[in-house]
Design brief:
Chain A is α/β, with parallel strands linked by helices. Helix content of chain A is 33%, strand content 32%. Classes of the chains: A alpha/beta, B alpha/beta.
Chain lengths: 351, 513
């Protein structure tokens, strides 16, 4: 992939107008004197396509490098203007630096250029980076704020950036405790600086939700769903429970739409270190007690087993993708507006 | 605590928010012609990729049917090889493929042997019993077209077409018939066993993402529809150009020609999509009703003046010397079969009256391109000096199907400088530059739609018959007059001179795609 990726230009600026000018130049391929660079001449032959503005907030240089790699790969599916903010308000004297660059990708057979601005601020400017971000956004396309790492609700930039963003994407697998999940839900529901919420951890649950839903598409089995009387979720022993909570919240919130309250049971299972290991839905119906088991197997697979009464109705193995961050982020970026299903699952998980 | 009575669920509420609103019912797909190329190259890779994305239901099964001497293990091994070789996603996930392969069996039988259908019925019953497929069947005809009628009749006579409850669907590959009469005959035969809603006639063009995107482009963007009519559009050009020859299909092509191979299906599908009225919803019959209305509105074709046919001679394509059509394998050295057709059509309705549609398709043209080009009328008045607008052409909106899927709009712009001089420039949107993800193969979409019982992207009886009616009119017109001396265009050119004359008579020119 790297062979298809060309860095066109990198310059350092401190003035917003200089940044804007450089952005225009890398976007449209102009050199300072209005001449086309060689790369830009090539760029001029094909259309530009930007589907969103993406703001990523990182805590340190190491995280910045990791995020850049994810965003480079993301740009293959979501060409965007990317602003990476490294805001260190507790560090040293005031400082504000910007690096503008353009990345050139050809994986699709077309030349696609995306721009990236890295804003690095210390001291007081770090508290006001949102004022620099606003003029750098491309108009008329959505603004997504990706905040990797742990919960940062008290970060000085949090509310200002939420105010700018149409969507806030976090990863609740990064150490979100119940209290953090509660605050996340508040962001989606508050009056001021409200952003719709995306969660990479929720995107990881798609396969689990998909296979669980499929079981009840089997003719005659839907009635058993109405007889659901319990759910057990087994999770890894490392103490991280957000994913299990969301899965439990999902089924609880879905069943609540038809007036069924589902008791949830969570158990740690030390055979896996992290994530959901097993998910069992217990039902009762005309064929006797039902047991729908979904077990994570080594090698990214999910075993599905359905027993109704003393009969095994189905058993199969399906793929459980280990999606990289850019793919999870890509899934979240395709969802328009509030992800009501997620917010309801989150709310139900917190009940 | 006493629990309240469970409510009755009418839909699977766990489905909400997932891509598919439901999983297809467990079913058996019976593939007739299972040892052939289509099964290996398209169907089995499509089924594997559907399974990979968890779109196939638990219990989904396949019975391969062919007269090739293969054991069940041989057939499964052959399918495994095919998936490894032709799947668009690599490497193949062995566990997922294994779960598909477990449900594959093979029945060796001649398609016309009535007794053999008893064995097929027994195998289907076994599948129902062991895999919970509940009598749901897709009968996929991946055979040569001459076997379609006999298979349908035997499925009817043996009772397989109705046995075991559940739904039954039949998928029929193109060509659907050879002319209107044979298409009607085939429809009649099929309808003696299957009702129209059970019939899925495949034109794989409709399964292409980019063809579906034409519908989105037209009907999801408010800016185009108001100008998509005779008032603003000068004419429309629809091109399906191929740079390849007939490959190894000489025998088939001799009896088909470009008119039957491409014009009757792909070109008329593109015409319908480009010219149809906005459907009120995306239901199968609503969309197909609108497409059929277009075909019904086509003005009777004047074959002498509005149709040109041609055949390629030897020439050079892409820097390579290639033989003429008559020199291809399994082609008569005196063949007059057309490898090129250009047709001028008019559509008699309020939207398109007097707006010509120029359709063309050909083999061994200089490049491969499928596109719909909407050429708009010139601006009613030019305030610029004549010298400023020399060489200017009117706006053209091109929807490219393949390659380089996307859209281009040709617009006028000022050339920088102290004087007013204008130049035409292209504003391009490349589908692949905004959505750089790999699209599913057309067969994945179509097989899944069939399993879900959604025939929107399949041709309906009246659609197919209307299209054949039009092709027959042209064929009959050709039969009534001497044909051109062929070959009449060298490989690597854009067709016969008569095709240029056809459009130039109207003061227009073919686009170079």
């Amino acid at each position: 992939m790297s062979s298809n990726h060309t860095e066109l230009t990198v310059q350092t600026f401190v003035d917003v107008h200089a940044i804007q000018q450089e952005l225009e130049q890398v976007r449209w391929g102009l050199q300072g004197d209005g001449e086309l660079t060689e790369a830009a001449q090539h760029a001029a032959n094909e259309a530009r396509a930007s589907v969103l503005n993406l703001i990523a907030v990182v805590a340190n240089e190491a995280e910045k490098d990791a995020v850049i790699q994810v965003l480079d790969r993301l740009s293959v599916t979501n060409p965007s203007r990317t602003l990476i903010l490294l805001a260190q308000h507790t560090k040293g004297a005031d400082k504000l630096e910007a690096q503008v660059s353009a990345q050139d990708r050809t994986e699709s057979g077309h030349r696609v250029t995306t721009e990236r601005v890295i804003l690095h601020a210390h001291g007081e400017p770090a508290r006001h980076l949102a004022s620099l971000v606003t003029p750098l956004l491309i108009s008329d396309i959505p603004v997504v704020l990706w905040w990797p790492g742990g919960p940062q609700f008290d970060h000085p930039l949090f509310d200002d950036l939420c105010h700018l963003a149409d969507r806030l994407v976090v990863d609740t697998d990064e150490g979100f405790a119940q209290a953090d999940l509660r605050r996340l839900l508040e962001v989606a529901r508050r009056e001021h600086a409200r952003a719709s919420i995306g969660d990479l951890n929720w995107a990881r649950l798609i396969a689990w939700r998909h296979v669980a839903a499929q079981c009840f598409d089997i003719p005659g089995v839907l009635d058993d769903l109405a007889g659901i009387h319990g759910v057990s979720i087994y999770h890894g022993g490392d103490g991280s429970t957000a994913q299990a909570s969301l899965l439990g919240g999902w089924i609880r919130s879905r069943m609540a739409t038809v007036g069924i309250e589902v008791p949830l049971e969570f158990r740690a299972d030390d055979t896996f270190e992290h994530g959901i290991c097993r998910f069992v839905i217990y039902t009762s119906g005309d064929d006797g007690p039902g047991r729908f088991s979904f077990t994570r197997l080594r090698g990214r697979r999910l075993s599905v087993e359905i027993r109704l009464g003393d009969q095994e109705l189905a058993r199969r193995t399906v793929r459980l993708e280990a999606r990289p961050a850019e793919e999870l982020l890509g899934i979240e970026l395709t969802l328009p507006g509030h992800d009501v299903l997620f917010e309801e699952a989150l709310a139900a998980a917190l009940r | 605590m006493a629990q309240a009575a469970a409510p009755t669920l009418t839909q699977n509420i766990l489905r909400e928010g997932l891509i598919l609103s439901r999983t297809p019912d467990p079913a058996v797909m019976v593939i007739f012609g299972a040892s052939g190329d289509l099964t290996a190259r398209k169907l089995m890779p499509a089924l594997y990729n559907l399974a990979l994305n968890r779109y196939l239901p638990s219990g989904f099964s396949v019975i391969g049917v062919a007269d090739t001497p293969l054991s069940e293990d041989d057939f499964r091994a052959h399918m495994t090889d095919a998936v490894q070789k032709f799947s668009r996603t690599q490497p193949v996930d062995r566990a997922v493929w294994q779960s598909v392969a477990e449900g594959i069996s093979y029945v060796r039988m001649p398609f016309d042997d009535p007794d053999a259908y008893g064995r097929l019925a027994a195998e289907l019953e076994r599948m129902d019993r062991e895999r919970g497929t509940n009598g749901n069947r897709v009968f996929y005809f991946a055979t040569a077209p001459q076997f379609f009628p006999v298979i349908v009749e035997r499925l009817g006579a043996s009772g397989i077409a109705r046995a075991g409850g559940g739904w039954k669907r039949v998928v029929i590959e193109k060509p659907f018939g050879h002319d209107l009469k044979s298409a009607k005959g085939l429809n009649q035969t099929i309808h003696s066993v299957f009702a129209e809603p059970q019939v899925y006639r495949i034109d794989h063009y409709l399964g292409k993402e980019t063809v579906q995107n034409v519908l989105v482009f037209r009907f999801a963007n408010g800016i185009f529809e108001p100008i998509w009519n005779r008032r603003y559009v000068d004419h429309v050009q629809i091109t399906v150009a191929e740079d390849i020859g007939i490959e190894r299909r000489g025998k088939y092509y001799e009896s088909s020609g470009a008119l039957r191979d491409i014009f009757q299906n792909h070109l008329l599908q593109l015409l319908s999509i480009a010219a149809m009225e906005p459907p009120p919803n995306f239901d199968a019959d609503t969309v197909r009703d609108e497409k059929v209305k277009v075909l019904k509105s086509i003005h009777p074709v004047d074959v002498v003046n509005d149709v040109v046919r041609g055949q390629y001679g030897p020439g050079w394509v892409g820097g390579q010397q290639v033989p003429g059509y008559r020199q291809e394998a399994n082609v008569s050295p005196n063949s007059t079969t057309e490898t090129y057709v250009a047709v001028r059509l008019k559509i008699d309705n309020w939207r398109w009256a007097d707006t010509p549609f120029y359709l063309r398709t050909g083999k061994r043209l200089p490049s491969r391109a499928s596109e719909i080009a909407i050429q708009f009328k010139s601006a009613p008045h030019q305030p610029f000096a004549k010298t400023a607008i020399q060489g200017m052409t009117p706006n053209v909106l091109v929807m490219r199907i393949q390659p380089h899927e996307g859209a281009s709009l040709k617009i006028a712009a000022k050339i920088p400088g102290p004087v007013m001089r204008l130049r035409t420039v292209n504003m391009d949107f490349f589908y692949g530059s905004s959505f750089m993800v790999e699209s599913p193969d057309a067969y994945e979409r179509l097989v899944l739609d069939c399993l879900l019982g959604d025939p929107t992207l399949f041709a309906r009886e009246d659609e197919v018959e209307r299209a054949w009616g039009l092709a027959d009119t042209i064929e009959d017109g050709w039969a009534a007059q001497p044909g051109p001396d062929v070959p009449n265009y060298p490989a690597g050119t854009w067709g016969p001179e008569a095709a240029d004359a056809l459009i130039e008579r109207d003061g227009r020119r073919w686009r170079r795609p």
